[in-house]
């Protein structure tokens, strides 16, 4: 972990404290303490279990994908991958550091770089596809309610959906129309040449071409493994389902027993899309604002809304940062064996 990453981690923790203070500054401290005391521990532990299940399912997916080409890969090594991914997703803009961090962790565990890239590629494609599919399902389930509640965030939600959809379309185009897509990308990049030096532009173009070619070659390897892809789709569905259910169980822990689980889950799907639009690491600020906007119609108490938002943010963001640091400093299995 570089010095810059450490500084970013500290900044994000401090930013979280500032946002939490701002959300509760107009609420009496005694009221907040009373709401915290009255939390139903059973439902809250279920919410905690959901985020752990989210990490567990991603570890299972990683284990299945890597294990088929590396029999020495252990589930311990697989479990480090999503945790380190959460850490670097949370401290880099647009979650850009998660993918490279996963590759490094897999290579530390003795996995060949090419095999690791192939596994991460399949995981990424399925994950993006499920995000788009879940959004469509959410609209079908509660279209009228969601249109009414999402009005203030409609533009952000639309942009978030478009970004994920474009990513999927671009990946599929590279897989099935490689030459055409490569030419299209090069054509789109041409205006950049007007603003940067020729040497730098040529360097960027060569890097993009190399990435596109690598992606295509890896996609050819996995494109015909339909049974494996189907298994990963099912596991990814349950992985995201546990994540989307967290606000529902937090609301139950605060005493809201009559909430509609489908609507609440659908609202969290929208928040997931909105977060991807904010360049600040972890979507800080945007995530809290989206949660408040979408759930204030359910949680009328300002103190309980603040508590729900803080608990949700702790589970979905800060737990990942903490566990990610632990996973990062933990030794891979092969190093443990050498020490023993």
Report on this model:
By secondary structure, the protein is an all-alpha fold. The chain has one domain. It contains 16 helices and no strands. Helix 6 packs across helix 13. The protein is globular and about 60 Å long. It starts with a helix and ends with a helix. The relative contact order is 0.16. The mean pLDDT is 86.
Total of domains: 1
Helix content: over 70%
Structural class: mainly alpha
Q: What is the number of helices?
A: 16
Helix-strand sequence: HHHHHHHHHHHHHHHH
Q: How would you sum up the global shape?
A: globular
| Subunit arrangement of the protein | single chain
Number of strands: 0
Into which percentage range does the β-strand content fall?
under 5%
Evaluate the radius of gyration: 21 Å
Q: Which sheet architecture does the biggest sheet show?
A: none
The residue ranges in which pLDDT falls below 50 over 5 or more consecutive positions are: none
What attributes characterize this protein structure?
single chain, 340 residues, mainly alpha
Write the layout of secondary structure elements.
Blueprint: H1 3-24, H2 29-37, H3 41-67, H4 75-90, H5 98-108, H6 113-141, H7 143-149, H8 154-176, H9 178-189, H10 198-222, H11 226-244, H12 246-253, H13 261-275, H14 286-295, H15 302-329, H16 333-339
Helix pairs in contact: 1-15, 3-4, 3-6, 3-11, 3-12, 4-5, 4-15, 5-6, 6-7, 6-8, 6-10, 6-11, 6-13, 8-9, 8-10, 8-13, 9-10, 12-15, 13-14, 14-15
